[in-house]
Design brief:
The chain is of the alpha/beta class. Helix content is 39%, strand content 19%. It has 14 helices and 17 strands. The strands form 4 sheets. It has a 7-stranded mixed beta sheet with strand order 4-12-11-10-7-5-6, sandwiched between helices. A 4-stranded mixed beta sheet has the order 1-2-3-15. A 4-stranded antiparallel beta sheet has the order 13-14-17-16, covered by helices on one side. A hairpin with a 2-residue loop joins strand 1 (25-29) and strand 2 (32-35). The structure holds pyridoxal-5'-phosphate.
Length: 384
């Protein structure tokens, strides 16, 4: 169906929660997308840090196809093979522990919050200004952004938002704190990497007060930063880790991982979801992790991130580049980021406006050097 017809259907039948770009994508392969008119695009956004292996990676397609022909869903009242094996693989990556499978990042956060409250009942949560954890009520309550929260008040009680400084967190955490919730790189907040000293200070503080350190790896996890998890850059071990986006390479899945003794707070009946851990999504995620391990994909993010950063720094209209691995923001001089995003899209490059003045780039970790150079050339041209 043509774009104009889709826009009409949207107007008639879809809630108005998204300001979509006026493009209809019909196909993807690797780092490329094609629209309904046959135009080709370089995708340097990946559904916001989702398709780490690129679009329609053959191993993921095959896993989905194979599982779909055998069993798509049966529910958590029974055993199936893919979620158990996926859990074992994730435990290997995350230092032992146990996982709960959900369907999205926000749901992984809900699980983490409930786990922390079950362990320290009535406890509160310390969260960071400019943090982002999702749109469900618990996750939204952990996301202290006025525009996102205010229309939906009252929120879940017990969330204390502080500036991301060691002193502010120290002042907020007390013996009744259930958990501190942090991102290794604040993604939606503008791609702001944390420092090791800061994370290590929070870790010590959580140990002193007996509260949990929950690290939200929904945007940073599974190789995006050059390590399997962002916290591995920061010299700490978390108690709980949330992940989603990249885990299914586009097939919806989330996971909340916790240390064994923390996970033990949950007993049957405490938490559940109909779709979480279903065979189709977990078969896809198993294929994702297999390719990532076999091809050491996280390591590729480091070299590719350096090349992309250097390329962006060579563009005079870009004032500064920040980020970690292949999660990168380019701070623009004197140009609204939305305008540049629209111009880049017209020129065949997909990026997004992470703030009013910065672009976010988060391509597939399998992006080639030539594709990075091509993206930099498009931005150079657009910004000229
Ligand atoms: N946590 C972080 C760090 C995120 O970046 C996001 C989404 O961007 C979420 C949680 C929410 O994930 P989802 O949109 O899958 O609910």
């Amino acid at each position: 169906m043509a774009l104009a017809a889709l826009q009409e259907l949207e107007r008639d039948a879809v809630m108005g929660t998204y300001a979509r770009n006026p493009v209809e994508f019909v196909r993807g392969a690797g780092t490329r997308l094609w629209d309904d008119e046959g135009n080709e695009y370089l995708d340097f956004l990946c559904g916001i840090s989702v398709s780490l292996l690129g679009h329609c990676h053959p191993a993921v397609v095959e896993a989905v196809r194979d599982q779909a022909t055998r069993l798509i869903h049966v529910g958590n009242l029974f055993y199936t093979d893919p979620p158990m094996r996926l859990a074992a693989r994730l435990s290997e990556l995350s230092l032992g522990g146990k996982v709960f499978f959900a369907n999205s990042g926000a749901e992984a956060i809900e699980c983490a919050l409930k786990l922390a409250r079950k362990r320290r009942q009535g406890g509160d949560f310390v969260v960071l200004e400019r943090g982002f954890h999702g749109r469900t009520y618990g996750a939204l309550s952990a996301t202290p952004q006025e525009s996102k929260q205010a229309p939906f008040a009252p929120l879940v009680p017990g969330f204390v938002a502080v500036e991301p400084t060691a002193e502010a967190v120290r002042a907020a955490v007390h013996d009744g704190t259930a958990a501190v919730l942090l991102e290794p790189v604040q993604g939606e907040g503008g791609v702001n990497p944390a420092t090791p000293a800061y994370f290590q200070g929070v870790r010590r503080l959580c140990d002193e007060r007996g509260c949990l350190l929950i690290v939200d790896e929904v945007q940073t996890g599974l190789g995006r930063t050059g390590e399997w998890f962002g916290f591995q850059h920061l010299g700490i071990e978390p108690d709980v880790v949330t992940m989603a986006k990249a885990l299914g390479n586009g097939v919806p899945i989330g996971a909340c991982w916790a240390r064994d003794d923390v996970a033990a707070a949950f007993v049957p009946g405490d938490h559940a979801t109909t779709f979480g851990g279903q065979p189709l999504a977990t078969a896809a995620a198993r294929a994702v992790l297999e390719v990532m391990q076999r091809e050491d994909v996280p390591a590729r993010a480091t070299a590719a991130g350096e090349r992309l950063t250097k390329g962006l720094e060579s563009i005079s209209a870009i004032a500064r580049v920040r980020g970690l691995g292949l999660l990168v923001a380019a701070e623009l001089r004197d140009r609204p980021s939305r305008e540049v995003v629209a111009a880049a899209l017209d020129a065949g490059l997909v990026v997004n406006a992470v703030t009013e003045t910065a672009l976010r780039l988060a391509p597939s970790l399998l992006v080639t050097d030539d594709e990075i150079d091509e993206a930099v050339a498009i931005l150079t041209m657009v910004l000229a």
